[in-house]
Amino acid sequence: MEGATSATTSAVAAAPAGRTLSPAQIEKTRKSAQDFEAMALGEMLKPMFNTVDTSKGLFGGGVGEATWKPMMVDEMAKSIAQNGGVGIADEVLKEMLRIQETTNE
């Protein structure tokens, strides 16, 4: 969660001085930016897992593995995003705060 705190801090510092958003609104926006990064990372990870031949693996593939694999990929993406990600959430958060601040003026 350390990455999320620094993202919020840097985005808040980059926002206009005449802040019109409450801390709760900023946190909700930060969560949305992090969710967006997790979704983007998940889309990047899917092709990687689709190329793995699981038929010769320990569990041998099958319907069960095919059913659970998309959920595993999504959870891996969420974990990456929650632990600092690749920087997408930071930039999205800055832009979302900028847009919300100018809209609320």
Describe the structure.
By secondary structure, this protein is mainly α. It has one domain. Helix content is 74%, strand content 0%. The two termini are 31 Å apart. About 5% of the residues have low confidence.
Radius of gyration: 18 Å
**Relative strand content:** under 5%
Spans where pLDDT lies below 50 across 5 or more residues: 13-17
Largest sheet: none
| Coarse structural class | mainly alpha
State the end-to-end distance: 31 Å
Order of H and E elements: HHHH
Question: How many beta-strand elements?
Answer: 0
Helix content: over 70%
Question: What distinguishing features does this structure have?
Answer:
105 residues; 4 helices; mainly alpha
Helices, strands, pairings?
Layout: H1 2-14, H2 23-50, H3 62-82, H4 88-103
Summarize the structure.
The chain is mainly α and 105 residues long.
